[in-house]
């Protein structure tokens, strides 16, 4: 595809493995723009991202009187979340750009593994010696 350009559109899937994208697709404005891109004939690939492992480093934890920390979440803690490192986005995009004809018109999801929040917080507790707990609203 020498001389041709490819557009790579990057978006988040959300903890539900598609919740954010599903919401965007229901918004008429996004559908119109997405359809316009598809109908334009412009080569493109959708690159869907998810939860970043780095989110654990930047999360504002609640510190409790007993010395433990609370991780606030707005989803069911037992949800198996797809996740990856921020750097995986660039690596994946580089693969797409190096072989665009293989990925044109496709949706590529970036995810290294799925994990449940309590399992991740258990590992954080073991590594740091601090106690981490899930905190947040009770969700149906």
UniProtKB/TrEMBL annotation:
SUPFAM superfamilies: NAD(P)-binding Rossmann-fold domains (SSF51735)
A Pfam family of this chain: NmrA
Coiled-coil stretches noted in the UniProt entry, renumbered to this chain: none
Keywords: NADP
Domain NmrA-like: 35-133
PANTHER family xref list: NITROGEN METABOLITE REPRESSION PROTEIN NMRA FAMILY MEMBER, NMRA LIKE REDOX SENSOR 1-RELATED
Family: Belongs to the NmrA-type oxidoreductase family.
Name of the featured protein: NmrA-like domain-containing protein
Organism this protein belongs to: [Myrmecia] bisecta
């Amino acid at each position: 595809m020498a001389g041709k350009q490819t557009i790579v559109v990057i978006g988040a899937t959300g903890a539900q493995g598609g919740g954010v994208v599903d919401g965007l697709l229901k918004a008429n404005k996004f559908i119109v723009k997405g359809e316009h891109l598809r109908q334009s004939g412009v080569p493109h690939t959708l690159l869907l991202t998810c939860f970043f492992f780095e989110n654990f480093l930047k999360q504002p934890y609640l510190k409790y009187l007993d010395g433990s920390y609370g991780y606030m979440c707005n989803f069911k803690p037992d949800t198996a979340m797809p996740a990856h490192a921020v750097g995986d986005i660039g690596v994946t995009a580089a693969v797409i750009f190096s072989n665009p004809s293989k990925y044109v018109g496709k949706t590529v999801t970036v995810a290294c593994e799925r994990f449940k929040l309590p399992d991740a917080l258990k590992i954080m507790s073991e590594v740091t010696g601090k106690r981490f707990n899930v905190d947040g609203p009770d969700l149906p």
